[in-house]
User: Fold proline--tRNA ligase from Sparassis crispa.
Amino acid sequence: MSSVIRGAQFFNETSIVPAAFVEHSATNSPATWREALEASGSAPKSFELIKTLVYKPKTAKNATPVPVVVIAREGTDVISGLLGKKLNLKDLRLGSEELLTEFFALDKNSLSPLALSEQTYPKVITVVDASIFTSSSVFAVHALSSSSTFFLTGKDIHTHLKGLETHGPALHEVDFEALKADTEPSAPAGQSKAAPVKKEREGARIEGAVQIAIGIKKEVDFAAWYTNVLIKAEMLDYYNVSGCYILRPWAYSIWEVIQDWFNARIRPMGVQNSYFPMFVSSKVLEREKDHVEGFSPEVAWVTRAGSSDLEEPIAIRPTSETVMYPYYAKWIKSHRDLPLKLNQWNSVVRWEFKNPQPFIRTREFLWQEGHTAHLTKAEADIEVRDILELYRQVFEDLLAVPVIPGVKSEKEKFAGGLYTTTVEGFVPTTGRGIQGATSHCLGQNFSRPEMFNIFVEDPNDPTGQGKVYVWQNSWGLSTRVIGVMVMTHGDNQGLVLPPRVASIQVVIVPCGLTAKISDEGRKAVNDKCDELAAALNKVGVRTRADLREGYTPGFKFNDWEQKGVPLRLEVGPADLAKDQTLTVRRDNGVKSPLPLAGITASVPKLLETIQADMFKRAQDLYFSRVKPVTRWEDVVPTLDNKCVVVIPWCEEEACEDDIKERSGRAAEPQDERAPSAGAKSLCIPFDQSKWPPIEPGKTKCPACGKDAKQWTMFGRSY
Amino acid sequence: MSSVIRGAQFFNETSIVPAAFVEHSATNSPATWREALEASGSAPKSFELIKTLVYKPKTAKNATPVPVVVIAREGTDVISGLLGKKLNLKDLRLGSEELLTEFFALDKNSLSPLALSEQTYPKVITVVDASIFTSSSVFAVHALSSSSTFFLTGKDIHTHLKGLETHGPALHEVDFEALKADTEPSAPAGQSKAAPVKKEREGARIEGAVQIAIGIKKEVDFAAWYTNVLIKAEMLDYYNVSGCYILRPWAYSIWEVIQDWFNARIRPMGVQNSYFPMFVSSKVLEREKDHVEGFSPEVAWVTRAGSSDLEEPIAIRPTSETVMYPYYAKWIKSHRDLPLKLNQWNSVVRWEFKNPQPFIRTREFLWQEGHTAHLTKAEADIEVRDILELYRQVFEDLLAVPVIPGVKSEKEKFAGGLYTTTVEGFVPTTGRGIQGATSHCLGQNFSRPEMFNIFVEDPNDPTGQGKVYVWQNSWGLSTRVIGVMVMTHGDNQGLVLPPRVASIQVVIVPCGLTAKISDEGRKAVNDKCDELAAALNKVGVRTRADLREGYTPGFKFNDWEQKGVPLRLEVGPADLAKDQTLTVRRDNGVKSPLPLAGITASVPKLLETIQADMFKRAQDLYFSRVKPVTRWEDVVPTLDNKCVVVIPWCEEEACEDDIKERSGRAAEPQDERAPSAGAKSLCIPFDQSKWPPIEPGKTKCPACGKDAKQWTMFGRSY
Assistant:
């Protein structure tokens, strides 16, 4: 050990005795630091690293910046945007090496809370992760060198930092978890339970990935149940970049079914698939101001390639309007080039800072985005609805998930568009609405001359002088649909898959093969299973015979139930003797013998029955929770009853804001981190016939008392 | 106009008279600057912006940095990595605002060549885009304020900067185009003609996108011909982010055919499709050092989301080994979980600084990547070859492109793998080899304990103690295949598509409808075309009847020839009278009447003939250019003759380096910007029987005289 330890002077002034001091090889990242400590052999068995981040706020040009020093646990998510908001400082950016040198005479790898001294503390703003002070962990802090480390308790760090307060401004103790939660107005209530999940992160085999506890009930902790089902059914795995998930084959195959189905239907409409680059220059991205405003807080920026800084940062597409439309302007030269209808299956990135939720809110997600240009509004209008009808069919006919088609309010429509149509889903367990998929008419907002300038000569103008700016639509359906399906049908045994999208529709399990059964008897049963599977596969039923050795039938039942396979066939010696099989439905658990004769006809029929029953049950439940309400005092109690309301509404934006505000305020008190409970407009259903006719001038909006226009669904939502 | 103009002092000291001075609204980007100038009404009609970039090289911690100021034309691509190399400075990074304030007391939006004065010039290194001095353009430079601009000639800028040399170090005049070209060892010779294409950029409707001149011959300027064909056939369009391209439906549909074909064949092998995130944390990316070394210079980094800096930069996957394998370690718990075979269709990003070329070398490209894990090497070996055989079929059976399967030399194998198999293509027009697709055995390099630690208990070890680290493969096929297909079959009329991948296989064009023809006669012909198309579509022939009004048959012929439709049927009144149609083959131009009777059988047969003929012709040509050579002195002349050589080779890496070096040196002198002409090993063909047996100890390597091992293909390549 060297005789002079940098940073040791700090202990002379306080009562602190570090738990250990370790010298090790130089480190340049948290990973190499941890590695070096573990390799040293002298580090405590279990410890957490402390990170020290230095930010520079935006300041007037010639003013000296006051750096913000953040001391946080390794696993704490320090979101500079949120922190800046809290401290009321603009544009916090990670400080340059020069800044560190200037203020601390240290490089970033040597920085630690010990860099804060009587001399430096007054010159900076210091923020500390409050959870350090209450933690029982041992923390590693650099001894002002990247190659040596002290181990301190949370209390030691507290003593050190609090001691400095006499020399400068007050210490900012920040609960970073709460900071994040504060910005999550629309996360489901159940999500407030996410904290224990977060805790498990640290022990997971893959750093940063989350291991989910098992055996949680859907009704008790919906958010935990949901992730649990996804993991156990092998639909998805957590990934070590927050907000990103791995789509495993069991989920991806559902997406492939949807792709094939949708492609087969848009192709006859003249839509062609294509691929546009994932990158957008900032210039192009920022062309449509209203539109970009909706997306810019979530745009991910590439600023470096290899070791070269890019001259201009390049965005990853959050959606492709501005990526594609400059080329529409180029390609559309005459009305003969219309309609132009392109679609792409791709991934887009929206770097949300709200709590991510698999399939429902993720930083990268898969979708299709269709972009079309038409000569007339009438033609565009028709396509908007044709596509929406396809989306309804994806939900209802493939996924057995009921939706209500309608139009979005002005407030909720697509940024930069003319109007937005939607299919609105519903999650009964939380009583929240969820937007399913949207089909937008963009009008001429993107084609007009000051925007992308997409026009043709008007073929109907006899002078040949007239221009028509094209009418555009865009429409998208994402992997979110899979999440809604899981939430709708899953139960406490796990996933429940609708037959039409299940990659395995039928599993055949040999049963009753006790020790008494002869080898021939065993073989006869297994062969029968294989034979049945082959026969069913031949008629297009996706079937698997589960002949795995070393697993009991009970294990297999549980395994496939968890994975949601719609139908199980049990085949045992007794069944064979009777020339039958026992069918077990996943959706309702009903067991029933089925003659082997005619099974290639009866099984497909049974699968269709399951599909229809699943849809009917879900639809009945949804409709039972859509409550017409005409008095304001009934709105919040109905919402609290896990329903959405449908009210005769005035369609005014101020009223919509007011409804959100008042319903949020009136809601029952909740966990302080729970999302706001205000109700948004979900849609104005196309089918108004379910409710009494609105009498112009007589029917009033229950929220503001003005004349009502149409019945409109309002609800808490995802 | 304000009475005191910042920057005007500069004119008092020189003979320069600016062409104009304009005050305008403040600007914060090149786009807003140009906009403001154009809006001002006082700017010259045509001008270029001058950009002034300030870089900071990496310096010792406490040394004062010497900034590098780069003055360049708006359209010049300043690649900091290459510039740094040229100036012998490490890690050039764009300087911070503080740096600009410190050195010039200016913000980045006000900076201009005028910021260089007697005072500032000696403190910095100044680099100027040499093409400014020789250009006849008028250049906009900021008058030391983001809201005012001088217009100067290249000569004015020259006068200004050269005048400063007396006060400090010499000015660096850099040809940025040549700088880029210098780093392109493997671009095709024809590519040196890319400069005129680049020139056209500036006039293109979409800023930054390239318009291609038309009518270039394949034999004369291959690179220009190639891009020309792609654009005119509507396969692809240039995009305003360099190195990225738009795949239009005509090309994307080919990719879909390949996807469907390949999916149908890997599924029975037990491969499942899935989707992994596009982002990789730097920690995970850097896990395998050899592997990452191969990719790190080209990795694109996301460092910012919305307005928040990320704590750690996140990479966009250049390939997914390190993305996926941590999860393989998690999912593979027992030998029962093996083999694990996942595939994904996705896009990857490799930010190459070499000249991009559509399909062949692009910064983002589409591909499939398969990743599998096996219990034994034998099983992994078999799969490597099974997949390679599928790749061969994609090329030969779908795209009619001949390839030679073989194994890569140690030097050319996949970074971090055990061995690489490949199908090697050939572009006869340039005489260069081109790697088609590769199937790698990774061995246990990624599964070993210090890497991803992917193991199972050895099921064959009676003690139950043994571990087996899994054997892994990865294999990929990209949209590059489409580029090779275009290069192989295209001609001076445009694209030529093999029938099996053409989205329109047959086009039917009504002909002979002169003014004399009655309306009924016209209708009869058009109806016949429709009827024929319907009949052919019904039997699975993708057919379009081109009944567009207002276009002559000649226009239509040309249009569809350019797009490469394999077969044209001409239908006119005379044909109808004879109950026949005239067939015109795209591949060889042969015209031949075909009876309408039995056309639903004869057309599919004719398409298969075309497919087979295209392949045969291409294969004959390829094989005629693979020349066995046993004397060193024959190597370079053979290469110069647009051939690849196959030599009895010693398989030693030093010899391979030597061959490259010597063949490069010996090549004929070329344009100074031409890529290096050294020959690489392309592959060691599996089928060695085409050449005389190698006699151990007797057959010698013609390059080094050591004992030869196997016949090996060497050639110039892409």
In short: The CA atoms of residues 275 and 344 of chain A lie 6 Å apart. The radius of gyration of chain A is 30 Å. Chain A touches chain B through 87 residues (CB under 8 Å).
